[in-house]
Design the sequence.
């Protein structure tokens, strides 16, 4: 348990989840695996985003759970690590094509706007807005390398929507466990996802990928009904590493 908590505190569970999601969808649409430069660039970027998020959170709110306490206690070494990884990412940018670079710059602009709205507490005015934007950034980041090469097909957009809804399910679940509130939103979302997945199967979507999505959905539903506590957040985040099943079966 301590090992998984450390992974969660360092956001390495999220990094693993994003990279495995990215690799699965990239392979499905492109029929080959992404280069290590692209995967490393994405993984480091995710680590930096979550690391910056924690530091902003510690400076703008009274959050003092174990996760935020960890980032407050080790703020100086964590910031040094992030600076080093940022410099590494600048080098990795020289190894990828211009289409991906320009797409990434667009994401940076979106992130800066997101962080500005967060600091100014604009996102606090509407319940669930911050989580919805975070889920959007999460899903776009996963599909960005694939879309930069494959383009925006209807199937890619549909899969992106499902990932967005699953990420929103995760974020709303643990926000509600931490703060309480409008559980009916989460219940509706749970049933919406359950309704979408079989419909996509009937329409011819890849059943292997839909099965992976169903596993992610099922883990969160299990947490809600049987272990509804913040300590299960690491499991909720690791659920998004379920695409490792696809990777192991297709590598």
Sequence:
């Amino acid at each position: 348990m301590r090992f998984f908590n450390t992974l969660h505190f360092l956001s390495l569970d999220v990094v693993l989840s994003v990279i495995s999601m990215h690799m699965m969808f990239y392979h499905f649409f492109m029929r080959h695996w992404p280069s290590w430069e692209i995967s490393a660039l994405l993984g480091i970027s995710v680590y930096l985003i979550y690391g910056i998020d924690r530091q902003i959170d510690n400076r703008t709110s009274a959050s003092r759970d174990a996760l935020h306490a960890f980032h407050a206690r080790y703020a100086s070494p964590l910031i040094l690590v992030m600076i080093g990884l940022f410099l590494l990412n600048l080098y990795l940018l020289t190894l990828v094509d211009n289409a991906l670079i320009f797409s990434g710059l667009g994401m940076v602009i979106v992130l800066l706007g997101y962080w500005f709205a967060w600091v100014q507490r604009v996102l606090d005015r509407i319940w669930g807005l911050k989580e919805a934007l975070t889920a959007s950034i999460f899903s776009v980041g996963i599909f960005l390398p694939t879309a930069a090469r494959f383009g925006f097909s209807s199937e890619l957009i549909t899969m992106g929507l499902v990932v967005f809804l699953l990420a929103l399910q995760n974020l709303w679940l643990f926000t509600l466990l931490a703060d309480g509130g409008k559980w009916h939103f989460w219940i509706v979302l749970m049933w919406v996802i359950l309704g979408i997945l079989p419909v996509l199967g009937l329409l011819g979507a890849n059943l292997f990928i839909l099965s992976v999505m169903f596993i992610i959905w099922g883990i969160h539903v299990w947490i809600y009904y049987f272990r509804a506590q913040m300590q299960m957040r690491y499991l909720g985040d690791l659920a998004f590493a379920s695409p490792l099943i696809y990777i192991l079966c297709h590598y």
In short: The two ends are 29 Å apart (CA to CA). Residues 30 and 46 are 22 Å apart (CA to CA). The mean pLDDT is 90.
